[in-house]
Amino acid sequence: MSLPTADHRTTTDPRSATAPRPATAPRPATAPRPATAPRTTADPRPATDRRPAGDRPITLERIESYLPERSVRIEELGERLGLHRAQLGVFRKFYGLDRLRYDPGLPLLDLLRPAARGALAALPEGGRVDYLAYAHVTQAVAPAHVDVAREIGDALGLADAEAFGLSHQACVSSLGAIEVLGELLRAEGGEGAYALMVTGEQAYSPVVQHVPNTSIMADAAASCLITLDGEGDVVRSFATRTLGEYAQWLELTPEQNTEFGERYGGRIAEVIHQAVEEAGLTLDDVELVIPHNVNKLAWRQTIKELGVAPEKVFLDNVPRYSHTFASDVFVNYTTLRDEGRLVDGAPYLLVSVGLGATFGAMVITHRAGGGTR
Amino acid sequence: MSSAGIDKVRDWILGRHPERTELASDVDLIESRLVDSLAFVELVYTIEDAAGVEIDFDNIDIEDFQTLATIEKAFFA
Asked: Where does the record place the Carrier domain (chain B) (predicted)?
């Protein structure tokens, strides 16, 4: 599914008609920030980044991530995960895994809250969060009677926000949630309406933590404050493809695993090319691919499939954090941003793959002056 | 003439790809996805079984697994 933005080539700037947000709207207890005035200056975005009036672009006002402090080497998890010498050797030597964050004593809400609060701090005076989506990979992240989305909403002082969980796209769920929240804002959001995407979970069981022959899952969380026509990074396209024949996750037959492995790189390449094309770009225009951290070998093969230079894909965090469920692309984004490596006005490609199997790619344009700074 | 050990590795790869009947020694196994990331551990086990030794991960590199020729040189020479 892609965003309904087939024609990106209009020169209409939908934001030129944006009215000031009302200053009287309820707002949660977050750091104040002056309300933004409607833009009246020339739009710095290229014409291909603009959308027709009525199809307002989703903007990512602030992205934050959080990693527990407790860091372990993958060998320390060998016994827990039943990994033998050769498996650990392959993970370290060829998949590029080294350390990861793993803190089983940390309550889930304590994992989720810091990044969510950080993102929420970008909510301007007069803004209000209408929707909160908790995107997760593992279906059961808490006992059945616990509504994590509601709990995190309440913990953030967002009692009035409509809170819901979203998964079934596995590690692509966080990107999918951005699209869903954007569509809700388009359909129902009034002036000053925002939405909060929260993702993050813990590798609470060996079954959850070890994806055989693929990766070792790690703890992390991320959050993204979203609105329409804001000043943050502009979402230019989102492409996904779900191959339902692999819905059995870890219970695929060996033949299905072989087939999936063979199709993996090609399917990623398809959604990447689709997302880039729908953004009105070519892969050469993309400044950097910000990927999920599944492992370096899978990306090596995908890089070959794409025909891009290896340095075009940011893999520095694979040995640092391993695969953090649906948080990877945002953890990697904040690493790049905090290191000053995101270029104002440049397009970036967020890419993730989820068991099940869903392939997702989102093109954004970074705006250093926006809320994500 | 190839060794019996590398023939076992070749047979294992061809067994995973019934559409192929032969596999040249210089074919890039990784970039061609004849061995994808999901199968890499199995490849290691196959080589260890055929060579009768445990692979020392501190002294190998991914290039040693690139083709049947490099595998033969690294583990069966």
From this structure: 1-77
Interface with chain A: mutation pick from B37, B56, B59, highest number of A CBs within 10 Å: B37
What confidence score (pLDDT) does residue A329 get?
98
Contact A261 B38 (CB under 8 A): yes
pTM metric for this prediction: 0.84
Q: State whether residue A85 sits within 8 Å of chain B by CB.
A: yes
Nearest-CA residue of chain A relative to B39? A213
- CA–CA separation, A179 and A11 (whole Å): 23
Task: Tell whether A39 lies on the interface with B, counting CB pairs under 8 A.
Answer: no
Structural domain A234-365, CATH architecture: 3-Layer(aba) Sandwich (3.40)
Phi-psi label, residue A280: left if phi above 0, alpha if psi -120 to 50, beta otherwise? left
Mean residue pLDDT of chain B comes to: 90
Q: What CATH number does domain A14-68+99-230 carry, 3.20.20.30, 3.40.47.10, 1.10.340.30, 3.30.70.250?
A: 3.40.47.10
For residue A221 the two structure tokens come to: 């969380």
Please, what is the average pLDDT of chain A? 85
Chain segment B34-69, per-residue pLDDT in tens = 888 778 889 999 999 999 999 999 999 989 999 999
What is Dmax (Cα atoms) for chain B? 35
Q: In Å, how far is B30's CA from the nearest CA of chain A?
A: 7
What ipTM describes this predicted complex? 0.86
Give domain limits for chain A.
14-68+99-230, 234-365
